[in-house]
Automatic annotation (TrEMBL):
This is Transposase IS116/IS110/IS902 family protein. It comes from Candidatus Kentrum sp. TC.
Length: 58
């Protein structure tokens, strides 16, 4: 859906910027990846939360 695409694009912009900021600040690359992955789970949860009622209605 369009809402999921908006959330995904928001996640893309935020997480790319966050990874760049963390690595520029000298953080370990693995640590930055874990931080980004944890935040990505939140975006995925938001998409699932919004899409589940629509799928159940079909």
């Amino acid at each position: 859906s369009e809402e999921a695409k908006v959330i995904a694009w928001t996640a893309q912009k935020r997480l790319c910027g966050r990874y760049y900021a963390l690595t520029r600040a000298g953080k370990n690359t693995k640590l930055a990846c874990v931080a980004i992955a944890r935040e990505l789970v939140g975006f995925v949860w938001d998409i699932v939360r919004q899409e589940t009622p629509k799928l159940a209605a079909n």
